[in-house]
């Protein structure tokens, strides 16, 4: 496996994002995905993340990593008038969560927009996860967007999706 394989599970729903962003008092022990000898599921600390500019932040997952992560991104801007909007896109080389735009009416003051994305990672090389932050009719916070990667314990399920509903 010479290239990174990243499978986008799903853009987390608001409820799932809220629970993923909360840090439980006693988190479940993290165990590596079975059958992947030599791979680890490391925690990604602040030292692995950086703000590149007011529109871009990135974190690097180390080589030989396997497991689920939730990427939590936020961007803050101050509206300049009617029609202000914010968009966050989490992704990397060859993959992305769908761009998510906050179009709720907003014309004055500062507002922070947060998005979460669940990803499954299996990579032999370091893997850069980035967030691109765009706004319209607003001024971005000069500190740039934030990006945090949190490990999600392995549950034994590769994926789950609704395939039909009546």
Descriptive notes:
This protein has one helix at 14-21, and strands spanning 5-11, 49-53, 56-61, 65-79, 85-92, 95-96, 100-102, 110-123, 127-136, 138-140, 146-152. A hairpin with a 2-residue loop joins strand 2 (49-53) and strand 3 (56-61). The chain is built from one helix and eleven strands. The chain has a domain at 1-20 and 64-153: Jelly Rolls (Sandwich). It is mainly beta.
Salient structural properties:
1 helix; single chain; 11 strands; mainly beta; 166 residues; disordered N terminus; Jelly Rolls; six-stranded antiparallel beta sheet
Topology record:
Elements lengths: L4 E7 L2 H8 L27 E5 L2 E6 L3 E15 L5 E8 L2 E2 L3 E3 L7 E14 L3 E10 L1 E3 L5 E7 L14
Antiparallel strand pairs: 1-8, 2-3, 3-9, 4-8, 4-10, 4-11, 5-6, 5-7, 5-9
Nutshell version of this structure?
This protein is mostly beta strands and 166 residues long. The protein has one helix at residues 14-21; strands spanning 5-11, 49-53, 56-61, 65-79, 85-92, 95-96, 100-102, 110-123, 127-136, 138-140, 146-152. A hairpin with a 2-residue loop joins β5 and β6.
